[in-house]
């Protein structure tokens, strides 16, 4: 059994406050014995306007957010999946990459995945329509399948809206992923309808654990996010979940013997013909 943590946050427009809140919850996860902790999308900053994050864009490899992550992983002795970090696009000052970065417990960065599917969506709330256009301020990453060995197994990376594209997760499973990480800032409307269903589907169809840390509550822009951070096993069972609308730590033990049993007794991945 291996203990992992998913961190739920209500990120605001104050970078220093967000990093302090993140550090406290990561410390709680490490004190509980977690070997890996995953942070939600936009864990370090959610401003009043989407373009506000451009001022925090960091060059790849260094900056206040990346330095914080490396130092915290090293000090706490815990691997960190850093939701998303705004990494500068060298050829486009008006957009950033939404980069999901992984740090080992020694503080060394061991993987980067740039979100490839962008949330350009109109959310119908009945009395109004909320318009989201991530592509205005985020550059899509080059299509990539990132699977990285970690202290808790082979980890496949993705971000939020990627959840709706099952072909990505099948490719990660084919490349050896045992654990799928899906940091998110789902809207409350789409989260209520689809979050749990999609997470459990990705776990079941790929016979992988899923760790899904989310944003919760109301943010500086007025946007409301769904939260319901959860960890799901390879059979689709929810191992742990946060059901209230507040920040906190979700902990679960991952039983890799159980994962191997699921894959062996119901070998759907081996039965694929298409």
UniProtKB/TrEMBL annotation:
Highest taxon above the source species: Bacteria
Keywords, comma-separated and alphabetical: Hydrolase
The keyword Hydrolase is annotated on this UniProt entry: yes
Gene3D superfamilies for the chain: Carbon-nitrogen hydrolase
Residue ranges of every copy of the CN hydrolase domain listed in the record: 2-256
PROSITE patterns in the cross-refs: CN_HYDROLASE, UPF0012
CDD domains found in the cross-reference section: nit (cd07572)
Family: Belongs to the carbon-nitrogen hydrolase superfamily. NIT1/NIT2 family.
UniProt-recorded name of the protein: Nitrilase
Source organism per UniProt: Hydrocarboniphaga daqingensis
């Amino acid at each position: 059994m291996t203990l992992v943590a998913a961190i739920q946050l209500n990120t605001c427009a104050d970078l220093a406050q967000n990093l302090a809140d993140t550090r406290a919850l990561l410390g709680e996860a490490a004190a509980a014995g977690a070997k890996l902790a995953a942070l939600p999308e936009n864990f370090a900053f959610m401003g009043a306007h989407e373009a506000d994050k451009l001022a925090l864009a960091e060059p790849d490899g260094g900056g206040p957010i990346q330095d914080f992550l490396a130092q915290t992983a090293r000090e706490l002795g815990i691997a960190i999946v850093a939701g998303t970090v705004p990494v500068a696009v060298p050829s486009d000052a008006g957009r950033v990459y939404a980069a999901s970065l992984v740090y080992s417990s020694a503080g060394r960065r061991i993987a980067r995945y740039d979100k490839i599917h962008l949330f350009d969506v109109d959310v119908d709330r009945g009395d109004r329509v909320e318009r989201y256009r991530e592509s205005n301020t985020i550059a899509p990453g080059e299509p990539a399948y990132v699977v990285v060995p970690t202290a808790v197994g082979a980890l496949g990376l993705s971000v939020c809206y990627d959840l709706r594209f099952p072909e990505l997760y099948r490719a990660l499973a084919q490349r050896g992923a045992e654990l799928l990480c899906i940091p998110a800032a789902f809207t409350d409307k789409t989260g209520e309808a689809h979050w749990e269903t999609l997470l459990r589907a990705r776990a079941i169809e790929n016979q992988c654990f899923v760790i899904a840390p989310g944003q919760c509550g109301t943010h500086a822009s007025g946007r409301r996010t769904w939260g319901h951070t959860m960890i799901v096993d390879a059979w689709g069972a929810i191992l742990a979940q946060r059901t209230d609308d507040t920040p906190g730590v979700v902990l679960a033990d991952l039983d890799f013997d159980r994962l191997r049993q699921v894959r062996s007794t119901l070998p759907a991945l081996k039965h694929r013909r298409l």
